[in-house]
Amino acid sequence: MFRAILLAVALLAIGGAAAYVRWWRIALLDAPPVAHVPRTSGPGPIAIADASDPDRGRLSGIVLDERAQAAPGMTVQACNTGYPIQGMLPSTHTDAKGHFALVGLLPGHTYVNAYNEPAFYPDASSNFFDEDGMAWVELPTGGEISDIVLKLKPAARLHVKARNAVTQAPIGQIVVSLERDSERNRSMGGGKLGDLWLVPTAPIRLCVTAESFQAAWYGGDGTFQRSVPITLAARQVFTAMVSLRPLKRAAAESTCSSRRSR
């Protein structure tokens, strides 16, 4: 029961961390210093977006797909790196001609990105992906930056499934860890009941964990040393099945890191 509670807490924490994945990207890109922005409202939290504030800025531009064609229906969001953001980021969708506009934004160093995951365009705010569909801008107080061009690159879709190596029965609730091959610091993961992940077209390695089972890397005998990298083409859909062996002791623990060194 105690292990079940720990797993539930871990899954909730991972799910919450996904909402802040953009901050991983910001830290790893080593963004330039942010200019000081004076507070224009009274005490308390500053609104993320406020179109009525004359000191706020505006961003506009176009989103292009991999063929340099206008990309309608893309989500575009902006994040000012000088403020701790809680809640939803300012966002909009591109029109039929791929154009977008965001108003009422906080001035300063701002990260802008476009994505549409059902259409294979990932949210590249995680450093797991390259910098496609994103841009950094310095938004002036009360000013506007126009003609921003965000160029998208499609990813692949990975289905991750797990089964009991002894009984062959499917394992429903798993925790997935993905990392770029030979780039351990460029990783992504989470716990979910679903099995869909957008992944870059670069080689990646996959590890799966589940309660009461030994962690296993995809391919080989479950160890990292014998794991097999997965390389997919743009828009390719691939199902990766990972077999997990039951732990011999109820109190035993197995992680992707522990299987990396064995």
Provide a compact summary of the structure:
By secondary structure, this protein is mainly beta.
Into how many domains do the coordinates divide? 2
CATH superfamily of the largest domain: Immunoglobulins
Number of strands: 15
Q: What value does the Rg take, in angstroms?
A: 21 Å
Main sheet strand line-up:
3-2-5-6
How would you spell out the order of helices and strands? Answer: HHEEEEEEEEEEEEEEEH
The CATH topology of the largest domain corresponds to: Immunoglobulin-like
CATH class of the largest domain: Mainly Beta
Sheet of most strands: 4 strands, antiparallel
Describe what this molecule looks like in 3D.
- The chain is elongated and about 65 Å long.
- The chain has helices at residues 2-18, 21-28, 256-260; strands spanning 57-64, 75-80, 91-93, 99-105, 108-115, 134-139, 144-151, 156-164, 170-171, 174-180, 183-192, 196-199, 204-209, 216-217, 237-244.
- The strands form four sheets. The chain has a four-stranded antiparallel sheet, with no helix packed on it. Strands 8, 9, 12 and 15 form a four-stranded mixed sheet that branches.
- 11% of the residues lie in helices and 36% in strands.
- With 262 residues, the chain is mainly beta.
- The chain folds into two domains: 11-29 and 47-151, Immunoglobulins (Immunoglobulin-like), CATH 2.60.40; 155-260, Carboxypeptidase-like, regulatory domain (Immunoglobulin-like), CATH 2.60.40.1120.
Topology:
Elements: H1 2-18, H2 21-28, E1 57-64, E2 75-80, E3 91-93, E4 99-105, E5 108-115, E6 134-139, E7 144-151, E8 156-164, E9 170-171, E10 174-180, E11 183-192, E12 196-199, E13 204-209, E14 216-217, E15 237-244, H3 256-260
Parallel strand pairs: 1-7, 8-15
Antiparallel strand pairs: 1-4, 2-3, 2-5, 5-6, 8-9, 8-12, 10-11, 10-13, 13-14
